[in-house]
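Incident log, structure service

09:12 report received: a user says their structure output differs between two submissions of the same chain.
09:20 pulled the input from the user's history:
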Amino acid sequence: MSGSTSMRLGALIPIRLASERLPGKALMPIKGKPVVHYLLDRVFACRHLSPDRTVVCTTEDASDDALVAAVESYGARVFRGSRDDIIRRFHDAMAAYRFDAVVQVDGDDPLSATEYMDATMDRLLSDPGIDIVTCDGLPLGTAVKSFTRRAMGKVFAHYRTEQNDTGFIYFFTKSNLCRHETIGPLSPAHIQKTARLTLDYPADLEVFTAIFEALEKPGRPASHAEVVAFLNAHPDLVQHNLHVEAEYWSRTVKKAGHLSFVDDAGAVRTVNL
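09:34 re-ran on a clean worker, output below:
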């Protein structure tokens, strides 16, 4: 980990094995290596982070014991908390590890872009008034976020829906509770407008398998530009899992559309999707 800030920086990654659509996906092997290790490789490569400040936030369920073992054996840390309330899980994890700001990476996204972990945290640290920085214009499943402990406190004080495992980030970005900024693609080589790179269905796993088998080398995760170039050279692969998109977004809207919070005036509202 490098950087001049005296703040304690970390990473939070929500994962649980009891997925509705693809149970146990984080431990499914590709080239003999579990998916979660591919994701951790990319987080460890962030120049603001180190393995001992990379925290997988999972549940207290016995079904997640195997995940804990896989994460800790790879050098990362674990926090175990609420099953469905990720806001509380994050809040308690930040307190336990005394983080002042975090890169937040989704456990379903093993191709999360290290370049944007760096960039979102750089922007967050550049202005003490910013609460959260997100990405825009990247392929689904590669964007990440960075937010402060102050942002976490604002959301924790105001949120009301405790079942928020889908859409939790909208409390930060669509409630007007936090000062939110976005960054766009850092290079034209980072843009791929069609690809779906999040792991929810068997077809998604087939896409990730093809990418990792072609690009990943020991000790050197493929860059985001390399992933995009590979996808552009293999348009059939890009099309392979797009048939699940409608179901994916329908489910997201259905589950996230009910998320409620109390605004600064004391009124109960739902996030504005």
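09:41 both user submissions now match this output. Likely a transient worker issue. Closing.
09:42 reviewer note: The CA atoms of residues 84 and 163 lie 5 Å apart. The chain has ten helices and eleven strands.
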